[in-house]
Each structure stands twice: as structure tokens, then as C-alpha cells.
């Protein structure tokens, strides 16, 4: 029996919204659009996962046992070689039959942001930008690894057996890279620095196409393979080839909002309060529950470090050193969205914790209220959120990271970090994982 192909089926569980842009902008909203196919289905392109996989192999493999030339042979097209032996199939995130119903409208959300000037601490001219984000259900991805020998004489049994053993060696690295995703999770799409596109792998399964079951394969399309064949759950091979970690440090961040510090993080034009629908400024929410975006944490931490002249922090966040400098490459830190801990997610409890507050604008001399200066806003109190800060493995000097994390913990200890509209100073804690 000869193995012709190995198929992997991985199930992605999305822990945060995903943003995969299609390279164009909506003229009305100004937001980067989410990629769709010709019938309006939202997709996770196979190329997005293929790029992550190739990055893992080229950067993370043990070069003593699998060199970069072998990785290129596995993944790239050369003039004198075949196409890639490993293929990632695209998957539908939101089917076409859901495109117009209420589920899809809740799944596709719009988030707006404003870039703040570091000198004036107000919005810069033309600094407002926006994005669409998609919240998919668990999604199955199909991966193919071609083990067919195209170059050697098929009648040469010795060379054919040697090639198959080499394919087993290569396959062990594919197993390892995918299992690393299961251990650490992965980030798919854009805006990952603030936690977008974070996924976990709930299951990994394998199925092998051989000379004995080839007829069964021919009777199905590759889509049918996801449910039709007898998949085997992938266990860790022993020993695993050496694959480096994507993250060298992880911290659990908790934010506690009390009665003295009500918090407001505005949800943008598209957000409607489900509890106080008449509010002008509604707290940002997802699936009916408030959350703190990773971008808000990133901004709050960055502003705190700027205040105390910790310039090294800009390097870690890949921010410009001077205001007029162009942006740098992706940073070494990822700030995930913060979600309510389980005991705070009951619907009735949230109605008690989101309150509508009335405010107005006054003339500073006469103390009279401006004609259009009255508005309502929705603030949150008595709630606990949790998320993570992850340190990528591309940090050159980890001592700089540990030094700044220690300084950040000091700032949290004395409640010196402000967040949201109106400068809330919540209780924050950072725990090493």
C-alpha cells in the first residue's frame, strides 16, 4: 500500500473577530471591506493560512534537521520544480443563505477608531479610520499534503521507498507546525496587533489517500471529504521535531471597573445600545455584551509609557519615535480584546451595570446650557474584564520587555493608567502565565 496524499482537517474556533480585507474601500463608510466570493459568501482564503504556515516553517524550524531549501521545496514554486506540495483550501465563513438575515448582520460589524496626536492628546486631522470585522462560527479547514513521487522511475522500488520515507520525515514537520498552532493558537488576517483574528484549534484530524482507497476518493469532491471519510484524531508524534514557539511570554490582564470609576468606550456609529437604545454614546459591545477592545488597552498603555518617557515602549509597539516618522513594522506585542468574566455575563446583571448618564455643555462665563449641548451616554460600572498581552518571539532583547512590564505593573498598582472617555482609572492587574 502506497500513501498518495495526506489530508488534515482542522477546526478553528474564533476567539475574536476577524478582518481579511479585499484591497478596496467602501466609498460611503471609508472602511476596508471584507473579502467575499462571487456569490457574496465571506471567506477565509487558503492563502492566508498558507502564508502563516510557511512563515512558521521558515522561521521556526530547527535548521539542523530541516533546512530552508527543503522548506522552499515543500512550499514554493521553482522553475525546475513542481508546485507546492501542501495546499490550504479556502473555507466559507458566512454562507450566502445567511447573507441577508439577522445572524449575518450581527456577525458583520463595523468598528471606527481615531488616531491620537501624542503631543496634543486630541484627534489628528484626517486621522479617523475604520474597519469591518466578522465574527464567524467554528470553521473546518482542509489541508492537503501531496506525497506522490513524480521524478523517479516508478519501477525503481529502492528509490520509491526512500522517497516515501523522506515524505514521512517532511510530514512530521507539518504535524508539528499544526500542533504548535493548537498549543499557542494563531492570528489570522489583519489588525492582529490589537487581538483581531485570534483562533484556537479545537480538533486536528488526518486521513490518508492510498492505492487501496483511491476509488472512494474519486467519487467525492474535496468538500465532501470533510464529513464523508473516516478521520483519525491527530495525536502528538513522539518525539516532535523542534519547532520554536511563536510567543515567548504571556500575561493575563484583568480590568476592574468600580462604582467610583464608571467606564465609557464608545461603540461607533454602527453600535446601538441594547439596554439604553436612546443613548447618544453607547458602550461598545459584541453579541450583546460590553467588551474592552485590544486597541483601547494598547492606547492606554502607550499613553502611560509616554507620560513617563519610556521611549523603549515605542520600539516594542513598532510606533514612530517622532510624530512625523512613518509607521514601522508590526510590533512585538499583541493586546487581545478583554471580555467580561463569566459571573458578569448574565443579561439581568448587565442591565444593572450599564447606566445612562445625562450630560450637557455649558458656557463657561454665563453657565448657560448651549442649545444643542445636551446628550446622553452609557457608562459601565461594577464589572471585571479579562484578556491577554502576548510577547512575540521576534524580540531581540527580552530584558527590555521584562523591565517595562515591571514598570507597567507599578503603574497598575497605583491606578495611574487612564482609559476610555472621561479618564476612568480602573483597577488593573497583570499576571504572568
Verbal overview:
With about 425 residues, this protein is of the alpha+beta class. It has two domains: about 200 residues, no CATH class; about 190 residues, no CATH class. About 25% of the residues lie in helices and about 30% in strands. The chain is built from ten helices and 21 strands. A hairpin with a 6-residue loop joins strand 2 and strand 3. The radius of gyration is 25 Å and the shape is elongated. The relative contact order is 0.15. The model has no long low-confidence stretch (mean pLDDT about 75).
Tally of strands: 21
pLDDT averaged residue by residue: 76
Number of helices: 10
Q: Domains counted in the coordinates: how many?
A: 2
Oligomer: single chain
Distance between the termini: 46 Å
The main pleated sheet reads as: 7 strands, antiparallel
Radius of gyration: 25 Å
Q: What proportion of the residues form beta strands (DSSP E)?
A: 25-35%
Low-confidence stretches: none
Helical fraction equals 25-40%
Supply the helix-strand structural class: alpha+beta
Amino acid at each position: 500500500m502506497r500513501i498518495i496524499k495526506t489530508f488534515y482537517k482542522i477546526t478553528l474556533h474564533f476567539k475574536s473577530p476577524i478582518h481579511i480585507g479585499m484591497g478596496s474601500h467602501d466609498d460611503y463608510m471609508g472602511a476596508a471591506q471584507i473579502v467575499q466570493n462571487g456569490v457574496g459568501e465571506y471567506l477565509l482564503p487558503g492563502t492566508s493560512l498558507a502564508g502563516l504556515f510557511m512563515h512558521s516553517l521558515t522561521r521556526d524550524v530547527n535548521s539542523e534537521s530541516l533546512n530552508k531549501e527543503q522548506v522552499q521545496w515543500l512550499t514554493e514554486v521553482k522553475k525546475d520544480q513542481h508546485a507546492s506540495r501542501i495546499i490550504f483550501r479556502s473555507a466559507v465563513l458566512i454562507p450566502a443563505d445567511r447573507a441577508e438575515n439577522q445572524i449575518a448582520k450581527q456577525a458583520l460589524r463595523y468598528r471606527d477608531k481615531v488616531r491620537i496626536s501624542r503631543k496634543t492628546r486630541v484627534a489628528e486631522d484626517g486621522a479617523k479610520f475604520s474597519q469591518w470585522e466578522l465574527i464567524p462560527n467554528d470553521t473546518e479547514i482542509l489541508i492537503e499534503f501531496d506525497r506522490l513521487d513524480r521524478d523517479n522511475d516508478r519501477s525503481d522500488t529502492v528509490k520509491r521507498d526512500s522517497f516515501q520515507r523522506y515524505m514521512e520525515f517532511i510530514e512530521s514537520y507539518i504535524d508539528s507546525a499544526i500542533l504548535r498552532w493548537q498549543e499557542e493558537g494563531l492570528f489570522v488576517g489583519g489588525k492582529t496587533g490589537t487581538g483581531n483574528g485570534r483562533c484556537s484549534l479545537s480538533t486536528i484530524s488526518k486521513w490518508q489517500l492510498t492505492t487501496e482507497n483511491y476509488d472512494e476518493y474519486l467519487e467525492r469532491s474535496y468538500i465532501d471529504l470533510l464529513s464523508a471519510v473516516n478521520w483519525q484524531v491527530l495525536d502528538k508524534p513522539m518525539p516532535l521535531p523542534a519547532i520554536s514557539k511563536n510567543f515567548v511570554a504571556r500575561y493575563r490582564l484583568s480590568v476592574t471597573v468600580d462604582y467610583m470609576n464608571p467606564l465609557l468606550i464608545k461603540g461607533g456609529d454602527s453600535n446601538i445600545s441594547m439596554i439604553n437604545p436612546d443613548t447618544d454614546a453607547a458602550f461598545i459591545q459584541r453579541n450583546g455584551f460590553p467588551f474592552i477592545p485590544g486597541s483601547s488597552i494598547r492606547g492606554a498603555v502607550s499613553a502611560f509609557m509616554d507620560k513617563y518617557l519610556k521611549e523603549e515602549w515605542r520600539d516594542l509597539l513598532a510606533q514612530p519615535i517622532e510624530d512625523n516618522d512613518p509607521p514601522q513594522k508590526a510590533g512585538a506585542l499583541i493586546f487581545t480584546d478583554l471580555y467580561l468574566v463569566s459571573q458578569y455575563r448574565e443579561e439581568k446583571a448587565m442591565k444593572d451595570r450599564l447606566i445612562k448618564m445625562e450630560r450637557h455643555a455649558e458656557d463657561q462665563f454665563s453657565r448657560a446650557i448651549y442649545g444643542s449641548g445636551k446628550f446622553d451616554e452609557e457608562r459601565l460600572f461594577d464589572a471585571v474584564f479579562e484578556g491577554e498581552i502576548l510577547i512575540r518571539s521576534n524580540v531581540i532583547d527580552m530584558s527590555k520587555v521584562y523591565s517595562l512590564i515591571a514598570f507597567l505593573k507599578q503603574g497598575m498598582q497605583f491606578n495611574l493608567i487612564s482609559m476610555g472617555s472621561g479618564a476612568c482609572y480602573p483597577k488593573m492587574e497583570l499576571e504572568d502565565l
